[in-house]
């Protein structure tokens, strides 16, 4: 669920940047942070799934 929410957030930040509602340079930090969080979450999900698979 967190992965999906972050993906949607990234999507909307891209739409806002492309629409120029807010200058792209003001969104850059938020976009970078969202991408970093996404990588961390995906990595955690993969690690957890691998550990659970080993336990079965």
UniProtKB/TrEMBL annotation:
Identify the domain of life: Bacteria
**Gene source species:** Bacteroides uniformis str. 3978 T3 ii
Which protein, by its recorded name, is this? Four helix bundle family protein
Q: Which NCBIfam families match?
A: four helix bundle protein (TIGR02436)
